[in-house]
């Protein structure tokens, strides 16, 4: 394992490279308000963050990453366009794997620029690829925006689409919902009973904080959902095909173009992908061998809503990705209090870079 001193030296080198690319160095507090992160990600964030509290400031979390505080800072006081870089520790609970670090150094680069999102995507990816080039890593790319567009256009109820959108970053739950909405798995017995008119147990004593009106509204919503027709086999087959796309970029675009015949509402997202590919090629990225996975990025932080990427050391499959990043336009809307700006960025782990170098023959 590399020493902390060596890791900090490597972090300083990476941050200097981002500064040379035009980024302003910023710092963020290690303790972050828990209410903001809980609002963004729900209670699930507690499973991967360290939570503490005090009488004056309420619940706080040890910084799980830098993106949220950097976006918050930019939306409050940043000029545009803007480029930022930073380095420091982040903290992630590892209750299932004690071999993975729960505290490590990240170095990041974030771009806020509305002029040309495709060019900004290419700028970030190409800069990371150049910095990591000597390591011989495998690059993976994807586009959460394609999947989001596919879900938003489905010919089904808004309630079902909202449920699917909420669980895009939870693949198992997403698949379970999709199978139920497609009629490929049975609805829960309790919901089937409600649809059949069986309201047994609904006259039980009222406990908890929900009012009778809230309970009745929820029951009505469940009945309406159970009665909604299944999503068509054509749409489900096309969505399954989209989720299975894993090809080099040129072949992926061909496959996605075929799928768009049955999911025509994905064509705008597909055009954005093509524009990004052109911008990557203009930056010197070899497109013919670049991997594209339509499902890539679905187990990472939920703020990504477009281009996503990662770099992996295939000679060290035990290591997490050396670098990850993506586009998070929706996050700027959430934190902008009425303002928004297209944004993309990524982070590298200098400690992992040193570990990969140690594995060289």
Strand segment tally: 12
Q: Which strand-content bin applies to the residues?
A: 15-25%
Q: Strand count, sense and closure of the main sheet?
A: 9 strands, mixed
Shape: globular
Averaging pLDDT over every residue, what do you get? Answer: 89
Instruction: Please give the order of strands in the largest beta sheet.
Output: 1-5-6-12-11-10-7-9-8
Number of helices in the DSSP assignment: 14
Q: What is the alpha-carbon Rg in Å?
A: 22 Å
String of helices and strands: HEEHEEHEEHEHHHHHHEHHEEEHEH
Structure description:
This protein has 361 residues and is of the alpha+beta class. It is globular. The mean pLDDT is 89. It has 14 helices and 12 strands. The two termini are 16 Å apart. The strands form 2 sheets. It has a 9-stranded mixed beta sheet with strand order 1-5-6-12-11-10-7-9-8, with helices on both faces. The chain has a 3-stranded antiparallel beta sheet with strand order 2-4-3. Strand 3 and strand 4 form a beta hairpin.
In short:
The protein has 361 residues and is α+β, with helices and mostly antiparallel strands.
What topology emerges from the helices and strands here?
Blueprint: H1 4-20, E1 24-25, E2 31-33, H2 34-41, E3 51-54, E4 58-62, H3 67-77, E5 82-91, E6 103-112, H4 117-132, E7 138-143, H5 144-152, H6 158-166, H7 171-181, H8 189-195, H9 212-227, H10 233-243, E8 246-248, H11 249-259, H12 267-282, E9 291-293, E10 307-312, E11 323-327, H13 329-335, E12 343-348, H14 350-358
Parallel strand pairs: 1-5, 7-9
Antiparallel strand pairs: 2-4, 3-4, 5-6, 6-12, 7-10, 8-9, 10-11, 11-12
